[in-house]
Amino acid sequence: MNKADLHVHTIMSDGMHTVEELIKMCKKRGITTIAITDHDTTKALQNIPSSSDVNIINGIELSTTFDNKSVHILGYYINPEDKALNEKLKFLREKRKTRAKRMVEKLKEIEGINIDYEEIKEKNPKSAIGRVHIAKELFEKHYVKNIADAFEKYIGDDSPCFVRNEKLTIEEAVNLIKNAGGISFLAHPGLIKDMESYEEILKYGIEGIEVFYPKHSEKQRQFFYDLAIKNNLLISGGSDFHGLKMKGKNKLASAYLTDKYLNQIINYHNNI
Predict the structure, then answer these.
(1) H/E/C letters for each residue in the chain?
(2) Contact at 8 Å (CB) between 234 and 183?
(3) Using CA atoms, how far apart are residues 227 and 160, in angstroms rounded to an integer?
(4) Which residue, of 142, 177, 270, 272, is most buried by count of CB atoms within 10 Å of its CB?
(5) Any long-range contacts for 48-51 (C-beta under 8 Å, 24+ apart)?
(6) Tell me: the pLDDT tens digits for 168-207?
(7) pLDDT tens track for 2-26
């Protein structure tokens, strides 16, 4: 049985592996297709090595806000050279950089914590520094037990050093993806935790839902499957993989698509 993991991150955003490393992992695990869906960057999609065993879909993950809630939108089959998309991504990356620096400053205000943004950047020269890199630094300097502990204590959404990120509207994200030749999906809807919002969110032209996700319960998977069928939407799935050493994070292909749903996505894209 073929497996497709359509939600994977690289070192170009907040993942811990290169595309080449991901391809090797996929070959070992029998994963035939992945979508590279880095946050706010298409850098990993440039000069992707050819592999007869692993098909790579050009993707993106965009953070949006809706009714004061964080909503992530996945885009598949985007043109990584699209000018409008890259101009907006550059703006968002600058905001992301400012956010990371502010979080580091807030951490340094806590007695006993001494970390430096430039040092983190030096250790991750190809990455857009985000919370995962800050968490990794806290762990390596023994301020926390693991990556998850860093989020829980310091930089998670409700934690003392959290800084809100600049985000698009859902409509902006969907239009950016569409104009770059891609198709848009609602990412990990179970993390939104507000079932009253889904019908409103889908009105912005989203073409599919990430039904299969490691943190979705069986009840949630059924709910989102039914929601997709009701609204004539495509069904996607992926692990949201960030790295092998990311304790508390999802494993590669811990959620995936079978050929049935992958072929529906491929056929839809080929006919738009």
Answers:
(1) CCEEEEEECCCCCCCCCCHHHHHHHHHHHCEEEEEECCECCCHHHCCCCCCCCCEEEEEEEEEEEECCEEEEEEEECCCCCCHHHHHHHHHHHHHHHHHHHHHHHHHHCCCCCCCCHHHHHHHCCCCCCCHHHHHHHHHHCCCCCCHHHHHHHHHCCCCCCCCCCCCEEHHHHHHHHHHCCCEEEECCHHHCCCCCCHHHHHCCCCCEEEEECCCCCHHHHHHHHHHHHHCCCEEEECCCECCCCCCCCCCCCCCCECHHHHHHHHHHHHCC
(2) yes
(3) 36
(4) 177
(5) 48/19, 49/19, 49/20, 49/23, 51/23, 51/27
(6) 999 999 999 999 999 999 999 999 877 778 999 999 999 9
(7) 899 999 999 998 888 999 999 999 9
Which pair of tokens denotes residue 221? Answer: 């998977």
Residue that the structure tokens 């049985």 belong to: 1
The 3 state secondary structure assigned to 181-217 is CCEEEECCHHHCCCCCCHHHHHCCCCCEEEEECCCCC
Confidence (pTM) = 0.85
